Amino acid sequence: MSSIFSNGFYKAVFDACSDAIYVIEPQSSKIVDANTRAWLDLGMSREQLLEHSVVTLQNDVENEEHWEMIAAEIIKADPFTFIGRHCHQDGTFFPVEVYTSVVEFEGRQLFISIARNLDLTTSQREEFRTKDARLTYALNEAADGLWDWNVTTGEVFFSPQLKRMLGYLPHEMTPTLETWADSIHESDKTRVLDSLDSHLNGHADSYKAEYQIRSRSGDYIWVRDRGRVCQRNEAGEAVRVVGMCHDITHSKGLEEQLREQASHDDLTGLLNRRAGYIHFKQQLSYAQRYQQQLTVCLIDLDHFKSVNDNYGHLVGDAVLAHFVGLMRHTLRKSDSLMRWGGEEFLLLLPNTDSESAIKRINKLKDEIKENPVTLEGGELSYTFSAGLAGYPGHSQTFDGLIKCADDALYRAKESGRNLILISEDNRNVE
Ligand SMILES: Nc1nc2c(ncn2[C@@H]2O[C@H](COP(=O)(O)OP(=O)(O)OP(=O)(O)O)[C@@H](O)[C@H]2O)c(=O)[nH]1
């Protein structure tokens, strides 16, 4: 359809309008026609614009399925107004207030959307100088999502930016406290609500929390949320609370990555020695509290230096990875393996006595024998030695258990390697 405005006069009126006007096909969201202001605002030619749809132009409409819901909402509300963002040809976005009504033309249903460009830099609209328009603009454009909670009625105003942060359109999100509270991740909810309560009751200066909140797509994003009571009644009870919510998903991701890097070994993905200490101490206090046995096993690959010397460092790395792979495959879920040093590993076997631990480690020995490392020119076999110590029999402390296991490992090496020995120290080394 080239233009539905056959009458020249109405076409001239259409093009003289200072707001962008779009004629939209409800089913496909395709732009059927648009006035001059529309393609000027978008930095496109008219031909380019007519190749677009609402889904490609409107930043707040995610996909066709999302559009279907919005179209149904427009037909129900007729007219329907919302504040969103249009995509300029140069890749930037500008805020628009869009007023959409439904018309019937020659037996066909169409949407007429009038989009007012709210971008102050390109618009000199008089009415935008009014306080309300400025406030709308500020709320829409603020980098942080704002909320304003009327404690008495339970109503919450969620700013357009806050809704956008969570993937909602301006008419979505029921404005109640439950909408927010129900979206908080279960693992964070109690902590967040406690923090809010503590501020409402005057125990904390302000409300501050970092938590995960469910977005429209069902995925969770990380937010930093801050708020403060701005009005109390005569009894000192909070009446109105306002706050700001900032999307920190990206920095949380980096933080998580850094924490992972600081606690894990790059080559094998196992906990490194520093994180291993903490984990070991936790396992030991668990065994102490529930009076369970805990076997500690230090494992060291035999003659590993000669693997590096004969085959190169990369093959050495492959052997380490091969060993860890087989360990993962053989161990129980409750067992934990840590990289204690270069070719030395610490294995913790909770609720296991030393005899059962020996059986399990022997099984691993058989696995390694049956599954040598495959190299380009053939296969490479290797062995390991291990020293075991059990809580509470050999020692009841962290340092004592490590010392007993280390002594047993030393004896295994001294006795010819490829051996698994239990600590001989029954004196409860402290
Ligand atoms: N490829 C590789 N080699 C490592 C790594 N970490 C430590 N090593 C090497 O492991 C070797 C350990 O050598 P030694 O301590 O002499 O022990 P060993 O040759 O295994 O002899 P025993 O333990 O007495 O059987 C050294 O050559 C280290 O360079 C690593 O991440 N990758």
UniProtKB/TrEMBL annotation:
Residue intervals of the PAC domain: 207-260
Domain PAS as annotated: residue spans: 131-203
Protein name: diguanylate cyclase
Signal peptide residue numbers: none
Catalytic activity: 2 GTP = 3',3'-c-di-GMP + 2 diphosphate
EC number of the protein: 2.7.7.65
Cofactor: Mg(2+)
MF term (GO), any: diguanylate cyclase activity
The GGDEF domain, residue ranges: 292-425
